Amino acid sequence: MNILKEVLKHQVYPAMGCTEPVSVALCAAYAAAELTGKVSHAHFRLDAGTYKNGCGVRIPNTDGEKGNLLAAAMGLLIARPDLQMEILSGADKELLQKAKELVEEKKVILEVAAQKQGFYIEADLQGENGDKVLCVISGSHTHVTYLSKNGKVLRDSQVQEDKADAHTFKEELKKATLADLIAWADNADGEDLTYIKKGVEMNLKAAELGQALQKVGFYIKELVRKRLLHMDLITSTKILTACAADARMDGQAVPVMSSGESGNQGVVTILVPWKVGKEMEVPEEKILKSIALSHLLNGYVKVFTGELAPICGCAIAAGVGATAAIVYQQRDGNIPAMTLAINNIISDIGGMLCDGAKSGCALKVVSSADAAIRSAFMGINDYGITEVEGFVGRSAEETIQNLGNISTVGMRAVDPMIVGIMQEKMK
């Protein structure tokens, strides 16, 4: 199994809008596509992390509207699962109005499936002609694990062998070492590098669109204009990544290349090493291979922390990938230097909470970009945090595994608490 190709296939893909509400829309579309008539009622159940991530983020092609519920209604009406994570590109003002009517008439309802661990979306539909369809997406944003119509099972990954199962490669990734990840990046072929370059171009376009918004990127530029910040490599990288995140979280109808199935993680994973590499005049092929390593490490961190963790993935998981990529550009596969860089960034921002997708994610992207470059520079110069401090391990792998234990075991009550706060505010 070529793990890099599997990661690029399953975790690195174009996505328009925040990937959690988009996945809700996709699940709705899979279910609605099986109906022979209109939807009379739709009941959605989401894990706490998915619910959390869709509460406060704007939805593309909605003029600034927010939320999983509206995304679900739009997915029901679009009913085109072939669009995958760009499904909301199929929306227009007329469809938006119909989706709002479904929500207002309470034909679409949504709740938290509190007992579900890991990524989980369930769409339970009833058609006007009596059809009943149940669809479940779980384990990843695009992986349909169950689909039935009128009691007839159309798909069940629990009982059917699925050779394209999106989970298989994760087990191999979890067993990998840092040396393995570096070797896989080294061996990226022309097809891989072309696809990675496509992601660079997509995310640069999103950053360009975000320049016009008066959001996080704008205010960092204002700090430069007022001479409170100097325009250097770190500042320019923070502006670039902030503008891309600003565009996404504002609901702009522009796709970005995701990483680890997250658009904001794609922004950090891709644009930070790209910008640094270009400024440092690193050959383009090496920059692209460093981004391959960045994608691999982002995915590696997430198999330990979980698909939707209580900690911020766009800052920490993607930041780990980006900092290692910068070390790779300057010192090739030097594992001690890369380990120090990874330890540095996890020691720095490892406790950053995820409180759902929203405009504030751009602030976390900025922190990640800054920390990734600083951590890499220290590692390149053989300085960093070692196992004698805190939860840092004796290797990069152990540090990441320790972070995973903190996220999945130590912080188990965080997401339900954050969701409770959000629900209380919505009352």
Structure description:
This protein has 427 residues and is an alpha+beta fold. The protein has two domains: 13-156, 2-Layer Sandwich (60s Ribosomal Protein L30, Chain: A), CATH 3.30.1330; 169-426, 2-methylcitrate dehydratase PrpD. Helices cover 55% and strands 11% of the residues. The chain has 17 helices and eight strands. The strands form two sheets. Strands 3-2-4-5-6-7 form a six-stranded mixed beta sheet. α10 packs antiparallel against α15. The chain is globular. Residues 160-164 have low confidence and may be disordered.
Summary of the model, kept short:
The protein is an alpha+beta fold and 427 residues long. It folds into two domains: 13-156, 60s Ribosomal Protein L30, Chain: A (2-Layer Sandwich); 169-426, 2-methylcitrate dehydratase PrpD. The protein has helices spanning 3-11, 19-32, 48-54, 68-78, 93-104, 168-174, 178-186, 190-210, 216-225, 233-249, 263-279, 284-305, 317-331, 335-349, 361-380, 396-410, 414-426; strands at 14-16, 39-46, 108-112, 120-127, 132-138, 144-149, 152-156, 255-257.
Write the layout of secondary structure elements.
Elements: H1 3-11, E1 14-16, H2 19-32, E2 39-46, H3 48-54, H4 68-78, H5 93-104, E3 108-112, E4 120-127, E5 132-138, E6 144-149, E7 152-156, H6 168-174, H7 178-186, H8 190-210, H9 216-225, H10 233-249, E8 255-257, H11 263-279, H12 284-305, H13 317-331, H14 335-349, H15 361-380, H16 396-410, H17 414-426
Parallel strand pairs: 2-3
Antiparallel strand pairs: 1-8, 2-4, 4-5, 5-6, 6-7
